[in-house]
Amino acid sequence: MDFSKHERQPLPISQGPEWSDVIPVSQNDAPNSVVQITYLERFTEILGYFQAIYLYAG
């Protein structure tokens, strides 16, 4: 069965008011990397906010 029609899609973190003062930090992949990894947009957004929190708390 396909349940995807009934699943609620979460709002992007950037649309949450509690995150309005957080600036996400983008991942800095080397331009000449041996392997280029394509990330899902949702993963990239979450990782950016995680890195911002990690850098701020560190």
Tell me what you see in this structure.
The protein is 29% helix and 0% strand. The protein is built from 1 helix and no strands. It has one helix spanning 41-57. The protein has 58 residues and is an all-alpha fold. The model has no long low-confidence stretch (mean pLDDT 86). The longest helix has 17 residues, at 41-57. The chain has a domain at 22-57. 0% of the residues are buried. It is flat and about 40 Å long. GO terms for molecular function: transferase activity. It comes from Helianthus annuus. Its EC number is 2.5.1.-. Residues 1-20 are annotated as: Disordered. It is an enzyme of class 2 (transferase).
Gist?
With 58 residues, this protein is mainly alpha-helical. The chain is built from 1 helix and no strands.
Order of helices and strands: H
Query: Share of helix among residues?
Result: 25-40%
Would you identify the regions where 5 or more consecutive residues have pLDDT less than 50? none
Major β-sheet profile? none
Count the E strands: 0
Average pLDDT confidence is 86
Shape: flat
Beginning-to-end CA distance, first to last residue: 45 Å
Give the percentage of residues in beta strands.
under 5%
Give the number of helices: 1
- Assign the structural class, choosing from mainly alpha, mainly beta, alpha/beta, alpha+beta, or little secondary structure: mainly alpha
What is the subunit arrangement here? single chain
- Rg measurement, Å: 15 Å
